[in-house]
Amino acid sequence: MAQQADITAMRRAVELAARGLGSTSPNPVVGCVITDASGHPVGEGWHQRAGGPHAEVHALREAGVLARGGTAYVTLEPCNHTGRTGPCAQALTEAGISRVVYAVGDPNPQATGGADTLRAAGVEVASGVLADEAEAVNIAWLTSVRHGRPFVRWKYAATLDGRIAAADGTSRWITSAESRADVHRLRAEADAVVVGSGTARADDPHLAVRGMDEAVQPLRVVVDTEATAVKPGARILDDAAPTLIAVAEEAETALPDVVRLPRAERGLSVPALLEALHARGVRSVLLEGGPTLAGAFVAAGAVDQVVGYLAPVLLGAGPAALADAGISTITEALRLDITDISNIGSDIRITATLKGA
Predict the structure, then answer these.
(1) Is-contact 126 97, C-beta < 8 A?
(2) N or C terminus of the chain with fewer C-beta within 10 Å?
(3) CA 258, CA 336: separation in Å to the nearest integer?
(4) How far apart are the C-alpha atoms of 100 and 6, rounded to whole Å?
(5) What are the distances in angstroms from CA 144 to CA 12, 106, 140, 198?
(6) Which residues make Cβ contacts (< 8 Å) with residue 137, sequence separation at least 6?
(7) What pLDDT does residue 80 have?
(8) Angstrom distance (rounded) from CA 289 to CA 192
(9) Nearest Cα to 286, choosing from 165, 109, 141, 140?
(10) What pTM value is reported for the model?
(11) What DSSP string runs through 203-235?
């Protein structure tokens, strides 16, 4: 069982890792805390941007000579390969670290093996401390490595009776200003924001992050099968953030930044879309589309997490948050595990994952 000192240090490392959300892709978010030989914290750091120093390097620089004989707490197994930066396992060894505690093993076949390298150098190694918390903060990258596709977070805002708009189509605003600001945080953490043609026609969305000056703007994606929803002059075509329009292979369009994909039974192939995004370095997707696109993603088994903002409002009519997802009977219902319930302004935000995932 982990000692309390290990838990405390690793929890701080997880907090540090979260600071990198939205700025490290296609690399993971990682946090590191270093304590000296007597157990006092002397250095900390996190992976701040792709291509920059890893968390361990930042922490070692801060610790200096006090790292010798100390312990390094890292949220992800120290890497064992040379890319744009050197192997962290070697850096820890050269700094004289005597013990390394990491939370989650590295599933990347190019970088794994750091623990073995450390042990071969005489460093004591332990793993699994706060693994669930470290997994949660790094879930997008871990999903992309394990499954070869981006992590998909479906976000929706609805009334307490599950309506995303009134019967006449009006929807501004169902949820509070605080909830809408929180959505910009989710956008800032994502590599791509995806909507469908219905949302593009009805709302002419901008989809860029607002109110966060340091945010890396995500790729804005519209699934426009027939190439008829995004018109020249649409807000999504400005230069505030990059844009990609997904259309059917035979669709005619003069728009730039188009990816052509095979059709599915309804619309475009969701797996093909995710494959195309992954090839562009996208490791996390925020699905903001309406009920039809959400239904297609759910039917394709491509939703990893659901974030629902529920407002204390009743409508009684209007479109529901989720359209046909290929579920015809209660025994086929997708059961979820709720991982968080928070009050956001006057609303409730519920975060859930597929049961057993």
Answers:
(1) no
(2) N
(3) 35
(4) 10
(5) 25, 12, 6, 28
(6) 14, 17, 18, 21, 29, 75
(7) 83
(8) 12
(9) 140
(10) 0.89
(11) H-------S-TTPPPPEEEEE-TTS-S--TT-G
| Active-site annotation holds for 56 | yes
Tell me how far the alpha carbon of residue 348 is from its chain's centroid.
21
Rounded to the nearest 5°, which phi and psi values hold at 226? Answer: -90, 0
Number of neighbours of residue 308 by Cβ within 10 angstroms: 18
The full length of the chain comes to 357
pLDDT at 226: 93
Give me 239's structure tokens. 């230069």
| Token code pair at residue 276 | 């195309």
In order, the DSSP letters of 117-167 are: HHHHTT-EEEE-TTHHHHHHHTHHHHHHHHHSS-EEEEEEEEETTSBSS-T
Instruction: Select which of 56, 77, 133, 288 is catalytic.
Output: 56
For 87-103, write each residue's pLDDT tens digit.
899 999 999 999 999 99
127-128-131 Cα angle (round to 5): 140
Residue with tokens 């000056």: 213
What's the alpha-carbon Rg for the chain, to the nearest Å? 22
Please answer whether residues 74 and 32 qualify as being in contact, where contact means their C-beta atoms are separated by less than 8 angstroms: yes
